[in-house]
User: Fold this.
Amino acid sequence: MSIFDKLKPKKEEPQSEEPNLDGWKAIENAFAVVYPGQDDRKHYGTLIPWRLGGNDPLDGISVYDGGDCWHFVTFGLSELYEKETDDAEYSGYGMEFTLRLKKGCYDAEDEENEIRCIAGIFQKIAKITFNSGELFQANEYLYTGQKTGMDVNQRSKITGFIMIADTKVEGIDTPNGRVDFVEFIGVTDDELVRLKNKELTVNELYRKLGSDITDYNRESVFS
Assistant:
C-alpha cells in the first residue's frame, strides 16, 4: 500500500456504541454541585489504561479550583464504566481519593509541577490497592518513613498523610454501587511517628490541625 492509498477516503463503518460512563459521570456530578461551571478544570488522564497493560491504575485525576486551594479527585478506584464486580453494594473498591492543596504554599513557577506531583503520588498509592487489595479509609494514616518533603523541591516537612471523609463532597450512590471520597491530608514525619506510637489518634491529630487543607509551609503541630 502506498501513502496515497492511505489517504483515500475510507468506507464508513458502523459506529460502535458509546461507552457507559455512568460511574464517571456520577463523580463529576457530585463535584459539580460544589464547583459549578468548572468544565475547563485541569484533568490528567492516563494514556494507556491499566487494563491494557499501562503503568498507571487510575484512568484520570481532576483538579478543581477551590479558591484558596486545589481540590483533587481520582477516577479509577471505583467502577467508572460497566459494572464488573459481583458486589452490588460498592462500586469497585468503593472509594476515590481526594486532597485539597493550599495555593501559594510553593514557588509560583512550580505550581503545575506541584499539581502533577500530587497526581503522581495518587497513582502510586492507587497501585498499592490494585496490586494488594489494600484499602485506604477515613481515620487511617499513611506512614511513608521518608524524611524529605513530598513537594517537588523536597523542602516541606509534609511526608505522609492522614485520611478523613471528604469535607466538601459527600459519598455517593452510583449505578455501580457506593463510592466514598477519602480525603488525604498531608502531615509531618513528627506527627506520623506519634500516630505510629499511638500517642494520639487520627481524629485527635485532625482536630489539632484545624484544617483539612494540605499546606507545605506548615510546621508540626507539636513544634
